[in-house]
Design goal:
This protein is mostly helical. Helices cover about 70% and strands about 0% of the residues. The chain has 9 helices and no strands. Helix 1 (about 5-25) packs across helix 2 (about 30-40), helix 4 runs antiparallel to helix 5 (about 80-90) and helix 7 (about 115-135) packs across helix 8 (about 150-165). The termini are far apart. About 30% of the residues are buried.
Length: about 200
């Protein structure tokens, strides 16, 4: 084990947790996995973060912040329709699959654990805020029937509902068909002939 100052060690372990949660999922990520990858004893994690749950929760906040930043950066310079689709998480983009898998798990676990419910609500709110901000910034290209905020929530409700139906096998079709339906819904919500 290399010696690092407390802040540096916390940052190292937090980044390890981010990577493991993203690849393995919430429940499958263990304190032993993090300790082994960080080259520390499991007790160090409890000492630094209070508990494995606290470390995982901090990692989820960081994952959420990065996702929002990445999607916002990716939407820059796109057509308004493509930008909204990017912010919603294009279902045909393979990079989104690990993120979807993790947040599906968190959504299920949030029903049992109040702290995860808070994190999940935070993630949904930051997602909606990002989409609403994009709509507001590109309002000249849209004819929304409602506020950008309410429009963003409807778009997010649609994509999360479709994702759930697809994941449960209740809705037949491919991710391409899902994307086609999502684009149609976006066009319905953001009516404007200029949006292509």
């Amino acid at each position: 084990m290399t010696y690092l100052k407390r802040d540096a060690r916390e940052e190292q372990l937090l980044e390890i947790a981010v990577g493991l949660l993203s690849s393995k999922g919430y429940r499958a990520t263990t304190i032993r996995d993090i300790a082994r990858e960080g080259g520390v004893a499991t007790g160090n994690i409890s000492r630094l973060f209070g508990s494995l749950s606290a470390l995982k929760q901090a990692a989820l906040y960081r994952i959420n912040d990065r996702i929002v930043e990445e999607y916002e950066a990716a939407s820059a310079g796109q057509t308004p329709l493509e930008g909204v689709l990017t912010l919603l998480g294009d279902p045909t983009d393979a990079r989104n699959q690990h993120v979807l898998t993790l947040w599906r798990e968190v959504a299920v676990l949030a029903a049992e654990e109040a702290t995860l419910r808070d994190i999940h609500q935070h993630a949904l709110r930051s997602w909606a805020l990002s989409v609403a901000r994009y709509i507001s910034e590109h309002i000249q290209h849209f004819r929304v029937r409602d506020t950008p905020e309410r429009t963003a929530w409807r778009l997010i409700s649609f994509i999360t509902g479709m994702d759930l139906l697809q994941e449960m096998g209740a809705m037949s079709g491919s991710y391409e068909e899902m994307k086609h339906d999502l684009v149609r819904f976006i066009r319905t919500e953001l009516i404007n002939d200029e949006v292509k």
